[in-house]
Amino acid sequence: MTARPSAPTAVDAVARALRDELDAVRTRAGGSAAPRVLDVGGGSGTWAVPLAAQGCEVTVVDSSANALAVLRSRARDAGVADRVRAVQGDVDALADIADGNGGADLVLGHGLLEYVDDPVAAVRALAGAAAPGSAVSVLVAGRWAAVLGRVVAGRVAEARRLLADPLGRWGAGDPLLRRMDTDEVRALLERDGGLVVEQVRGHRVLADLVPETPDGPSGAADLAALEELAGQTPPLRDLASRIHVVARRPGPR
């Protein structure tokens, strides 16, 4: 994904949702402690380093030693190495990795469910790692955007296979184990994870269809506003490249 430097981008909707949640965490705590964030599959720190820069204590769990090395380097460069903890492991080991502190204030599973062998077990592990009343944020590859993208690229046979496949894959060479639609993600989090879904948004609904930033002083801002609205509006929301869901673990906050 290439950010548009001159104006807010589609990723801002996800980042804003996380900031809102963390502001609520700080308010409940009276500002007495840094929010605890657990980023599962967080790799090189795309989300972890900015969150640490916002004052969070972030633990990143990833199976790749190389990605975690990049994370440590980025955290040092950003001056937040003391607020980022890197742990090599996978979602199956969350129960052993988590501190005995009652769970995280925010759990991220961004770009995770596409790759795990057992998404039900993964979602249950994410839910179990969140403190009661805390949020789980999931970002997963959207099925319908992948179909349309292949049609536009002239890869019609792949689009047909992807549309017909129960897991939303285009073939044996597909690097993803699955893609999902909004109903599938919601059911996975609610039915299998025991979470309460609060927000479902499309992430990059229309922005990827625009070859360049629109002209004019308000062009980029207009695109960002359109993207924000489309991400909340079915059926456009359901055509997004990725689906963002914020769900909450039941319990007192």
CATH architecture of the largest domain: 3-Layer(aba) Sandwich
The main pleated sheet reads as: 7 strands, mixed
**Count of the domains:** 2
CATH homologous superfamily descriptor of the largest domain: Vaccinia Virus protein VP39
Widest β-sheet, arrangement of strands: 3-2-1-4-5-7-6
Which residues form runs of ≥5 with pLDDT under 50? 1-10
Strand content: 15-25%
* CATH domain topology of the largest domain: Rossmann fold
pLDDT averaged residue by residue? 89
Spatial extent as radius of gyration: 18 Å
Walk me through this protein's architecture:
The chain is an alpha/beta fold and 253 residues long. It folds into 2 domains: 11-141 and 181-203 and 243-248, Vaccinia Virus protein VP39 (Rossmann fold), CATH 3.40.50; 143-179, no CATH class. It is 38% helix and 20% strand. The chain is built from 9 helices and 7 strands; from the N terminus they run αβαβαβαβαβαααβαβ. It has helices at 11-29, 48-53, 65-77, 94-97, 119-129, 143-152, 156-164, 182-192, 219-230, and strands at residues 36-40, 57-62, 84-88, 104-110, 130-141, 196-203, 242-248. A 7-stranded mixed β-sheet has the order 3-2-1-4-5-7-6, with helices on both faces. Helix 6 packs antiparallel against helix 7 (156-164). Residues 1-10 have low confidence and may be disordered.
